[in-house]
Known about the structure:
alpha/beta, six-stranded parallel β-sheet, disordered C terminus, DNA damage, ATP-dependent DNA helicase, binds adenosine-5'-triphosphate
Amino acid sequence: MGKTLADYDLLEFDIDDNDIHDDNREISEELSIVINDDDIACAQSLNIEQKYAYDQILDKVFSKVPGLFFIDGPGGSGKTFLYKTILAAVRSKGLIALDTASSGVAASILPGGRTAHSRFKIPLVMEEHNTCHVSKQSGLAKLMKDASLIVWDEAPMVKKEAIESLDKMLQDINECDLLFGGKVVVFGGDFRQVIPVVPKARAFQKLPSRPPFSPTFVSHSPASSSSIVT
Ligand SMILES: Nc1ncnc2c1ncn2[C@@H]1O[C@H](COP(=O)(O)OP(=O)(O)OP(=O)(O)O)[C@@H](O)[C@H]1O
């Protein structure tokens, strides 16, 4: 029979970084992300559609106006290139830009990237009305409050409840009932690359589980949100 954890002389602390009330740790980690000069320079080589998205998003960020965007484009159309350029522009002004993706692989190619589930403490098993595990007094909540931009790549890969839980959490910690607590949030991805997979579901049950069918997207105010196709 194999050994168990109790057989090893491990420390008995159960550390959850959401419990550490050190406001500065999460924020200083984000502010220490190295900004690549090449990513800043990429602003000069954006194509027309990328430049349009870049200008629209940065306008909202720098004027501190709420904004919700979806960057849609087929594989290889330059979505990641655009995110990197936007993130570098925001971070170069000393602002916090949280960079996430649905999969670890996509997160690992973005500077300072984390999976959305890890960054926002989204429950792995999502059910309706689930919320992110972020305490309002935590350092992580402070980081979310201070963030000027949130990017979530490969958003079509997750169930709509995951995105709704981020919306609820941001509204709660920002004490603001605007979508995503009034933050500038950029979702991106390619629905053409993602086949909705819902175990044992019939065809008509699959699509409604995807983000575009979430009331969060369907009921948005046109004045505060946009969709951009690259
Ligand atoms: N404006 C641009 N100028 C120069 N190179 C670009 C530009 N836009 C994209 N590229 C290059 O095109 C390639 C594909 O771009 P990118 O990886 O951003 O696509 P993507 O839409 O994220 O693809 P996927 O959905 O498969 O992840 C990359 O090598 C990227 O550097």
